[in-house]
Structures are given as C-alpha cells and as structure tokens.
Amino acid sequence: MALQGVWGAVTDLALEFMVSRTFIYMLRDDLQAITEKIFGECRTFLEQKEQWIRKQAIAVALCLRLEGRCSIGSTSQILKRFGSAKYNSVGWVSEILQFAGECLPNTLVNEETGVRLVIMACDEIFSHFRPILITVDPVSSAILRIELADSREVSVWKEHWECIERSGYLAVYLVNDEGKSMLLAQKKVLSQVIRQSDTFHGLAHRLGAWVDRLEKTAYTAIEREEDRFNRLQSAKSEAVIEKKTKEYETAKEQADKAIESYDRFHYLYLCLIGTLQVFDRDGNPNERQAAEATV
User: Fold this and answer.
1) What string of pLDDT tens digits covers the 295 residues of the chain?
2) Dihedral sign, CA of 279, 285, 288, 294?
3) Do residues 196 and 173 touch, judged by C-beta distance below 8 A?
C-alpha cells in the first residue's frame, strides 16, 4: 500500500511497528527497486493504474472547482474524504488548476459561422501591481479576453479589443469605467459603439465628486464666517459695528446653508452607496428592483 502511494499507509506502518517514517520510506524504496528488477513487466500495469487514478482525481478537482464553485481548500478536503489517494493536497489542487488555466487560451474564439454581436464589459484588475485587462460578455458571463499586461496604455487596450474582433466577436455596446486609457482607446477602435459608464462610476463616482465640492464650499463659508466675526470684534464706531454685523450675519447664513447642503447630500450619497452594494449590512443580497426604487 505504501509502494502504491495509498494516503496514510506510511503513517499507519510507522505507528503499528513503532519505527520512524524515514525507515518506512527506506524500506519502500528498496522494495520498489527489487520489484522493478525482478518483475519489470508489472510496472506497466502499475503505471497505467496510477495514471487512471490521477486522471480521475484531476477530473473531480476541476468539477468541484468550476461547477461546484468550491474553494481550493474545500476541494482538497472533499478529495480526502472520498479516499483520493495521494492526489488531494491543497498544493496539488492549486497546481492542477494553474496548469489547466495555462493550457486555455486567453481569448475566446467564436466557432460559429460569421461574426457574433456582443455587449462588452471591460475593467482593469491588478496582480502584484501588474494590470490584468479583462473583457466579458455580461449576458452570458463569458470571458472574451483576459491578459496580464505590462501596462494599461491606449495601445494595449486597442490591441486587446482588436484581438477580440479578430476572434469573431463584434461589440455593439460597451460598458466600462472612466479610465483615461480606456476612453481614448474606445475613441480609436470602438468609436461607433455606444458607451456607458458602469454603475459605480456612472453614479457613485460622479456624485462623490459633488460631495467633495460641497464639503470645500462649506469649509470656505465657515472660514469666511470666522473672518467676518473677527472683523466685527475689532470694530469701534457704531457705523462700522453695524456694517460688520450685517456682513457677519450674511456670512453665517451662507455658512449654515452650505453646511446643511453638504450634510444632506453626504447622507443621501452614503445611502446610495449602500444600495449599490451587492450585499446589505446583514449579508443579504440586494434586490435589483428595490435598489432601483431606492436610487
């Protein structure tokens, strides 16, 4: 059993005979060498059986990960629970998934006759400070192209979309954020395509800019109110005091309005951000209709 790599066999033998695992490994290697020398023709059968076991483990691991949406740790645990010998560690599962990913092309090829019209949703994510450019079809969730790039310049995005078009997909609608490179690339390659900002940048990002503006306006008004108050304190004559009082009252009224505008807008902005989240504070999914009604 230890020779065939049955999981836990070495540990069981070491505990049963009260010897070290190293001693078991040494005996196993000696037995393997002798067996191969005397019964060399049996190795083919063992190799074929080993390959079959490994192939089955790979198939199960891929099913659990891609169809079952299991984490790498859960995939490893399930393989162990169902007695998958040797091929069950977290490192092995991770290695297999990485190998499978490297075998797949980074661009989806349209195998149908003619060009396929698609909506394209694009974004940039980062891995160790390197940009990953990704374009998906939001209707089917298919990844049209994903690539680890050296930069996210206009030329890189231009080649990214041109490669998708060469693969048999033609964009009829584009959804992305307001990154400068993507916007410039879109004007060069997809100028005829209707473009829409994603929900976050179309709403939260633009309204967030107004939050900053209103906050600056409020602080400016507060500073003006304080300045007018200090000038009032230094006034001596009744005429000057009356003039400075009116200026202070006007500045105070403007400051109060600016603070109130900022407070109200900021509160509504936070409500909006919460509505746009996938989950609420209790971890429940936000329903689309309820979110649209709240907005």
Assistant:
1) 777 777 788 888 999 999 998 998 899 888 888 877 777 655 566 677 778 888 888 999 999 988 888 999 999 999 888 887 788 889 999 999 988 888 888 899 998 888 999 999 999 988 888 999 999 998 888 999 999 998 989 999 999 999 999 999 999 999 998 888 888 999 988 989 999 988 778 888 889 999 999 999 999 999 999 999 998 888 888 888 889 899 999 999 999 999 999 999 999 999 888 888 888 778 888 888 888 888 8
2) negative
3) yes
Q: Which amino acid is at 255?
A: A
Angle at which helices 238-276 and 206-233 cross, to 10°? 160
- The region, left, alpha or beta by phi > 0 then psi within -120 to 50, assigned to residue 87 is beta
CATH number for the domain running over 116-197 = 3.30.420.10
Inter-residue contact 226 to 281 (CB < 8 Å): no
DSSP one-letter string for 27-62: HHHHHHHHHHHHSGGGHHHHHHHHHHHHHHHHHHHH
DSSP symbol at 291: H
What are the backbone angles phi and psi of residue 126, rounded to the nearest 5°? -130, 140
Q: How far is residue 163's CA from residue 197's CA, in Å, rounded to a whole number?
A: 22
CA–CA–CA angle 172, 132, 196 (5° rounding): 30
Output the CA–CA distances (angstroms, integers) from residue 143 to 18, 82, 120, 181, 200, in the order listed. Answer: 55, 32, 10, 21, 21
Q: Are 122 and 145 in contact (CB under 8 A)?
A: no
- Quote the pTM value: 0.54
- Six-digit token pair at 100? 């499978």
Residue 129, token pair as written in the block: 């400070």
Cα within 13 Å of Cα(21), Cβ side: 5
